[in-house]
Specification:
- It contains 6 helices and 7 strands.
- The protein has helices at 9-25, 28-33, 52-59, 85-92, 96-108, 122-131; strands at residues 37-41, 49-50, 73-77, 116-119, 135-140, 149-150, 152-153.
- A 5-stranded mixed β-sheet has the order 4-3-5-1-6. Strands 2-7 form a two-stranded parallel ribbon.
- The longest helix has 17 residues, at 9-25.
Length: 168
């Protein structure tokens, strides 16, 4: 500090740096990158867990039925959306511009009972999974409710060490 009430140039620059870092940390991009996802299923589903490989096949529409014969319908928010970055990277493994084509191809042969259904929000997704036998979906872990079952992925539940759909 120079004269009374004045702030030095160095202190002002430091304050600006702190503001920039805080604004980045609180930005939607940073929040989206840290999102943890959970796999939820219809409560009547007898399958309680999947491997990561099985989950990828379900999410890509490559697995059509559960072991008990029920058809699988996968509900998700648009994987190309910014807050679905984790799903795009860990499940689809393709640039976001290619995801819609992959979903269309998966649904092409399944007219009347699509393999993959895109929904607008986690709330809608949960309602759909709850009401459709054989349904499974991906939601933010903080959206989970008691109307659906949470599935293990690779033997782990969300928040357990080593859970594969952890956002960080």
């Amino acid at each position: 500090m120079g004269r009374r009430g004045e702030v030095s140039v160095g202190a002002r620059r430091g304050f600006i740096r702190v503001l920039l870092v805080l604004s980045w940390l609180l930005s939607p991009v940073a929040i989206a990158a840290a999102k943890d996802m959970a796999v939820v299923s219809n409560k009547a589903n007898t399958v309680t867990g999947v491997t990561m490989t099985e989950l990828v096949k379900i999410c890509k529409g490559l697995t059509n039925h559960w072991p008990d014969g029920k058809p699988i319908t996968f509900f998700t928010r648009d994987p190309a959306a910014p807050d679905m970055k984790l799903v795009l990277e860990k499940i689809y493994g393709v640039p976001k511009g290619e995801v819609s084509g992959m979903i269309s191809a998966a649904n092409h042969a399944r007219i009347g009972h699509p393999a993959i259904v895109l929904v607008e929000s986690d709330e809608i997704l949960l309602r759909k999974v709850e009401s459709v036998p054989g349904a499974v979906g991906l939601v933010d872990v903080y959206s989970i409710n008691s109307r659906v079952a949470v599935m293990r992925v690779g033997g782990k539940l969300p928040f357990e060490a080593g859970y594969p759909l952890h956002g960080n």
